[in-house]
Each structure stands twice: as C-alpha cells, then as structure tokens.
Design brief:
By secondary structure, the protein is mainly beta. It has one domain (11-84): OB fold (Dihydrolipoamide Acetyltransferase, E2P). The protein contains no helices and five strands. The protein is globular, with a radius of gyration of 14 Å. The two termini are 24 Å apart. This is Small ribosomal subunit protein uS17.
Length: 87
C-alpha cells in the first residue's frame, strides 16, 4: 500500500480459489489460533469475496486484500496487490 497514514482498515493475505465472476475473486485466508483451554493451535480458514476491477487475478495467486465499503451483498473487500502469480 502506498498510503503514508495509518489506516484502521484490515489487510489480509490469502489465496485466490475462484475467479469465475466478473470483477470478483474469492480469496481464502488461513489463520492459526490457540485454543483457550487446551493451548493447542488450530487452523481456521475463511473465504472473502473481493473486488478485482481489472480481472487480473487467476486461481492460485497469492493476493493482499483490504476492507472497504459494501460493494454488493457479500463483497466488502478490495484487491490491493498480487503478491505471487500462480505457476
């Protein structure tokens, strides 16, 4: 991101799992959380729909997304940049 001030918007890094819709990608984000009682680490996975205005992402790309205003019923994230292209 090229902004100089601190933003309160969340920024996530994930992998593109679908690019079937026009100007929309589905990004899956993996996080690791610690169980409060048993102290075991658990993997969590969640999907986010993100706005991709140039249709530049393909399945398998590693991308960075940022929170935004609601763009449609389920789309509340925007593509910031493609970190790695899929092979």
């Amino acid at each position: 991101m090229a902004e100089t001030h601190k933003s309160s918007k969340r920024v996530l890094v994930g992998k593109v799992v679908s690019d079937a819709n026009d100007k929309t990608i589905v990004v899956t984000v993996d996080t690791v959380v610690k169980h409060p009682l048993y102290k075991k680490y658990i993997s969590r996975r969640k999907k986010f729909m993100a706005h991709d205005p140039a249709n530049e992402c393909k399945i398998g790309d590693k991308v960075q997304i940022i929170e935004s205003r609601p763009l449609s019923r389920r789309k509340r994230w925007q593509l910031v940049q493609v970190l790695e292209k899929a092979v």
